[in-house]
Design a protein that fits this description.
about 20% strand; binds guanosine-5'-diphosphate; about 475 residues; alpha/beta; seven-stranded mixed sheet; single chain
Length: about 475
């Protein structure tokens, strides 16, 4: 891929719409657009002011140099560095027909642009320093957001909340590193403005900040990535009914024939700010039926991976052997476990004492839609840090960012030990550099091409 060669793509979704927007970016963007677009005011785009919308005709040019008018529309020039990509960019709006849009794109390509790859505009913005890596990830998350809370969180990330917090800590580490290096370079002189003790204290202070930031991932993960959730219980306790209540529509088929939920259904539900990725399973009981057995095997797998288990029981009936088997199976299970005592519209006979090792026991009626809010509150309470503001605070929103902070914390702890144990300053510095590299990875100061490629490949063409 050549840097700054000129790329073009349709930036609005494929399909019929009122308008479509095409984006051209690179050194030749204005020249390319000028070959296709003729402003009614007779000025070329090269002579047109930045950020000014001009109306004109859009032309295609064939191999013989014959120009055909395809459409009329608006062009806006954004000159480097004041554009999304940081390069010269022209946005052309035309009518949103499928063919019109394709022909305008073809005209731009014939005029010298090449088709943009998935995420290439954003990648260029990143390379030009317009966006940090975590901001680019937030942009991707914003486009994908399925819940309001996820939208608010990604918007804050895009505004640089996380970047700024990580940048501050990075800066603090840089100050320590330069003082320590000065001590290595001029050991005899009394130039060192920072003693080993002070450096150690500062490293520990930075470590505390890194850990606090990493801790926000519990909430960020719950909001942005979603909690892997399994609803389990013996047949007919009301798993499908609960699933539908949480998802908010009839996604699972509710029947009173035991064992009809054969496959695992995955749905997203928002519970306040928390996103649940719900797996409704066939239950955990053995079965003679081959199809159902597959379902049961998958259910076990899902249960092993679940971060939240909603174990459903029929509160109007005593525990059966199957219920007890489920309780045994769950005894060793990590993560958050909640017992749902369903059917409380009928007389309750189950005793909450049976569920002592569950983080919550909620009595409700899925059928009558009573008591669901108590369950929602329990879930929010278990996964969200209530003191955190999704719109104002720096929040770690994905596993990659979290891993950078964990690696940074590990290296900082080792730096602090090296300093307090009186190890050679060279060793202390190399540990500190390792911490800085890990933290830098969060925001793309130091990050491999593979990771950058992976992040931007998730965007669509035109973004
Ligand atoms: P699953 O097999 O565990 O998925 O259970 P379903 O959701 O399919 O429900 C089994 C039966 O229990 C259906 O007849 C539901 O109408 C009934 N049911 C579900 N929830 C409740 C409830 O809260 N109260 C009562 N009385 N019946 C319920």
């Amino acid at each position: 891929m050549k840097l700054n060669d000129t790329i073009a793509a349709v930036s609005t979704p494929r399909g019929k719409g009122g308008i479509a927007v095409l984006r051209v970016s690179g050194d030749e963007a204005v020249a390319v657009a000028d070959r296709v677009f003729a402003a009614k005011n007779k000025k070329s785009l090269a002579e047109t002011e930045s950020s000014r919308a001009v109306y004109g005709d859009i032309y295609a040019c064939d191999a013989h140099g014959t120009r055909t008018r395809i459409d009329d529309g608006i062009a806006v020039v954004f000159r480097a560095p004041h554009s999304f990509t940081g390069e010269d960019t022209v946005e052309v709006s035309c009518h949103g027909g499928l063919l019109v849009t394709e022909e305008v794109l073809a005209a731009l390509l014939a005029a010298g642009a090449r088709p943009a790859e998935a995420g290439e505009f954003t990648r260029r913005a990143f390379l030009a320093g317009k966006l940090s890596l975590s901001e680019a990830e937030s942009l991707g998350a914003l486009l994908e957001a399925k819940t309001h809370a996820a939208l608010v969180l990604s918007r804050a990330g895009l505004d640089g909340r996380l970047s700024a917090a990580a940048g501050d800590i990075y800066h603090a580490l840089l100050t320590i590193a330069s003082a320590l290096y000065a001590a290595i370079d001029y050991p005899e002189e009394d130039l060192t403005e920072m003693s080993r003790e002070e450096a150690g204290e500062r490293v520990l202070a930075a470590l505390a900040r890194v850990r606090a930031l990493a801790d926000t991932y519990r909430s960020g993960h719950a909001v942005a990535e979603g909690i892997r959730t399994v609803i389990c219980g013996r047949p007919n306790v009301g798993k499908s009914s609960l699933f539908n209540r949480l998802v908010g529509r009839d996604a699972a088929i509710v029947t009173d024939v035991a064992g009809t939920t054969r496959d695992i259904l995955t749905e997203t539900a928002s519970v306040g700010a928390v996103t649940l990725r719900l797996l409704d399973t066939a239950g955990l009981r053995a079965s003679e039926d081959a199809v159902e057995r597959i379902g049961v095997a998958r259910a076990k797998e899902a249960l092993a991976e679940a971060e939240l288990v909603l174990a459903v029981f029929d509160g109007s009936a005593p525990l059966t052997d199957e219920d007890k088997e489920l309780l045994d199976a769950l005894a060793a299970k990590g993560g958050v476990k909640m017992a749902v005592l369903n059917k409380n519209d009928e007389k309750t006979v189950l005793d909450a004492k049976n569920f002592a090792d569950f983080s919550a026991v909620v009595s409700l009626s899925a059928k009558e839609n009573v008591g669901l809010d108590a369950l929602r509150d329990a879930i929010e309470g278990a996964f969200l840090d209530g003191s955190l503001s999704l719109s104002e605070d720096a929040v770690v929103a994905n596993a990659r960012q979290y891993a950078s902070l964990v690696a940074c914390a590990e290296a900082l702890a080792s730096t602090a030990t090296a300093l307090s144990d009186g190890l050679l300053m060279d060793i202390c510095c190399s540990e500190l550099e390792r911490a800085m590299a890990a933290l830098g990875g969060l925001d793309g100061r130091e990050v491999s091409e593979d990771i950058v490629g992976e992040i931007f490949s998730k965007f669509c063409v035109g973004k």
